[in-house]
Amino acid sequence: MSNKHRPYTLIAELTYRCPLRCFYCSNPLDFASRGAEIDTDTWLRVFQEAEALGVVQLSLTGGEPLLRDDLELLIGQASKLELYTNLITSGIPLTFERLARFRALGLNSVQVSIQSTRSAESDRIAGAPSFNRKLEAMQWVKALELPLTMNIVLHRDNIDEIHAVIALAERVSADRLELANAQYLGWALANRAALLPTREQLDQARTITADAKVRLRGKMEVLFVTPDYYSEYPKSCMDGWGRRFIVVNPEGLALPCHLAQTLPGLHFDNVKHRRLADIWHHSTGFNHFRGDGWLPDPCRTCDRRTIDFGGCRCQAFHMTGNAVATDPACSLSPDHGHVESARSQATRLAGVPVLFEYRTGRGFARA
Amino acid sequence: MLRMITRVTDDTARPRLSPKVRLRFDRRTGRSLLLYPERGLELNETATEIAHRCTGESTVADMVQHLAQIYADVSPGDITREVDDFLTALADRGLLRNMP
Q1: pLDDT tens, residue by residue, A162-220
Q2: Per residue in A51-65, pLDDT tens?
Q3: What letter does residue A64 receive in the DSSP assignment?
Q4: Which of A2-16, A17-31, A72-86 tops mean pLDDT?
Q5: How many angstroms separate the CA atoms of A366 and B7, rounded?
């Protein structure tokens, strides 16, 4: 079978519940009103169907996946299917014993996110006391000899700490450091004025990171995810629509990306009612933006159409109201003015406090 | 003849895959996959032979010798270069231990 549309990665969003309330959360704004979480048996079947389709990588994420008390069963199944399983977590709520169980069951790697290198600041951004427990969780990961990725979502309030972030990653012996600038969708789009850094901030962070990459080569993989608001061309979102990734969200919708269900007029199927292979190959949702027949101008004739596939559909829709538009992050987009005005706003607001809204709704306490 | 390029790898090194790496067979393509957090490499035949010998026991010289037996029609220089390139690519990604 051709590998043209082969999913290599399943992103299993096990729950939208989370003990944290980060104001850049990538979950949809209406997550609290979504349907009930799918049950253990459905997930076990989804993993099996995903493996049969060609998936080799599994991300267990959320919300906070640790809030699922069937995580042990899910990790065991993934291991049986030889999936490379990465747990993406805040580290809360976790015990050393539970993490040791995950390891024994075959978990391959753990990603722990922090919000800042300063405890009080990290807790402020997370909207909950959490920093010290995250440090402890990272130490447990290393003590169990599991590969550790330290992740931080960068924005205007923490991007100037990049030196300290790299130093902390070295101190906790992270195998991988993910410096991920916020993607301005979901809660991050709603709070964009409080998040978007200036070009100067970004350039400085990029320079410091480039040095660290060279210095740490072979010891720690350092990844810097540029915010597409400051790049000339858009990202190839999810490596292209329905090409390499399947997201299954907590209520069971199978999606090409974690916000695809926010696009109007598209239909996405639930894994409770349809086999994953059928959804992947034949559903209208997955086929909607496959190939280049749908591309708008100027993408249609652009040399980069096979590189970035027109960019992010969600970003196009949430910025222009038109899901078929060129991603406005692209400097060639007729709607690029949206991005330019956001950048000017970032410059104007530099150093000025901006109100933001924490992610709200169904949280840990009410779970 | 003088070597024009400095070798990155040392013949006596005994490379070993880092613990974050899983090497597995891909039944859809019949090739080997080298998986690590959020990434993967699909290996060709030579790379597969090399990767399977990254156990901390074989030296780089052993790997070259092994491949020379399989690919009798390829020049030793090309084989050495291929081993070097692949090991360097792995080391750059932090996927190897025991490299100088």
Answers
A1: 999 999 999 999 999 999 999 999 999 999 999 999 999 999 999 999 999 999 988 89
A2: 999 999 999 999 999
A3: -
A4: A72-86
A5: 60
- Interval A256-277 mean pLDDT: 96
- How far apart (Å, rounded) are the C-alpha atoms in residues A150 and A156? 19
The answer to whether residue A1 neighbours chain B at the CB level (below 8 Å) is yes
Are A176 and B22 in contact (CB < 8 Å)?
no
Is the distance from CB of A117 to CB of A168 less than 8 angstroms? yes
β-pairing, A148-154 vs A109-114, is parallel
Give the separation between CA A63 and CA A27, rounded to whole angstroms: 7
Q: How far apart are CA B91 and CA B99, in angstroms?
A: 8
Mean per-residue pLDDT over chain A, rounded: 94
Q: Which of A8, A86, A218 sits opposite B37 (nearest CB)?
A: A86
The residues with which B31 forms a beta bridge, in sequence order, are B26
Mean pLDDT (whole number) for B62-87: 93
Please indicate whether, in this complex, the C-beta atoms of B36 and A147 are within 8 angstroms of each other.
Answer: yes
Distances (CA, A) of A134 to A92, A129, A224: 7, 10, 21
Among candidate residues B25, B4, B5, the one with its CA nearest the CA of residue B88: B5
d(CA B100, CA B85): 15
Query: Three-state SS for A129?
Result: coil
Query: Of how many residues is chain A composed?
Result: 367
Across the A:B interface, residue pairs with CB atoms under 8 Å apart total 57
**Average pLDDT for A84-106:** 98
**Cα A269 to chain centroid, rounded:** 21
pLDDT at B50 (0 to 100): 96
A13 contacts A180 by C-beta, under 8 angstroms: no
Kindly state whether A61 is in contact with chain B, defined as any CB-CB distance less than 8 angstroms: no
Taking Cα atoms as reference points, which of A152, A158, A150 lies closest to residue A202? A158
Examine the predicted complex and report whether its ipTM is higher than 0.90. Answer: no
Any idea what DSSP says for residue A160?
Answer: G
Residue contact B20–A3, C-beta within 8 A: no
Is 0.80 surpassed by the pTM of this model? Answer: yes
Q: Look at residue A353 and give its three-state secondary structure.
A: coil
